[in-house]
């Protein structure tokens, strides 16, 4: 489980940009500044994100595994390494 604020902060530090509506949408922009098709979201109401939702967000983020997503938001996984993993899976 991770706090919503920690996950959102991690995403923003790795090239995601926030777009608010009834949910908080995060769209990934590459290192070159190009908008990608990778996107995920969090809820305005939820304070914490459980294991199930983290795994769903990982899939939305280019098919990452649960632990890879945690590395992304906790910062050991760099933005360049994230892009490489996503490109390798396509």
Topology at a glance:
Blueprint: E1 2-3, H1 4-13, E2 16-20, E3 23-29, E4 35-43, E5 48-49, H2 51-60, H3 66-74, H4 79-89
Antiparallel strand pairs: 1-5, 2-3, 3-4
- How many helices? The count is 4
Q: Which spans have pLDDT < 50 for at least 5 consecutive residues?
A: none
Listing every helix as H and every strand as E from the N terminus to the C terminus, the arrangement reads EHEEEEHHH
Helix content: 40-55%
E-strand count: 5
Q: Kindly give the count of domains.
A: 1
The pLDDT mean sits at 92
Provide the spatial order of strands within the biggest beta sheet: 2-3-4
Structural class, from secondary structure content? alpha+beta
Largest sheet: 3 strands, antiparallel
Distance between the termini: 28 Å
Shape: globular
**Radius of gyration, CA atoms, in whole angstroms:** 12 Å
Beta-strand percent range = 25-35%
Description:
- Strand 3 and strand 4 (35-43) form a beta hairpin.
- With 90 residues, the chain is an alpha+beta fold.
- The strands form two sheets. A three-stranded antiparallel sheet has the order 2-3-4, covered by helices on one side. Strands 1-5 form a two-stranded antiparallel ribbon.
- The protein is built from four helices and five strands; from the N terminus they run βαββββααα.
- It starts with a strand and ends with a helix.
- Helix 1 packs across helix 3 (66-74) and helix 2 (51-60) crosses helix 3.
- Helix content is 44%, strand content 28%.
- The chain is globular.
- The mean pLDDT is 92.
- The chain has one domain.
- The longest helix is centred in the C-terminal third of the chain and has 11 residues, at 79-89.
């Amino acid at each position: 489980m991770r706090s919503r604020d920690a996950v959102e902060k991690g995403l923003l530090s790795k090239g995601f940009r926030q777009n608010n509506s009834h949910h908080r949408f995060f769209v990934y922009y590459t290192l070159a500044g190009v908008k990608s098709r990778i996107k995920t979201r969090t809820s305005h109401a939820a304070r914490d994100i459980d294991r199930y939702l983290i795994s769903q967000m990982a899939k939305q983020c280019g098919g990452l595994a649960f632990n890879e997503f945690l590395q992304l938001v906790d910062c050991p996984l760099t933005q360049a390494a994230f892009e490489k993993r996503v490109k390798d899976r396509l």
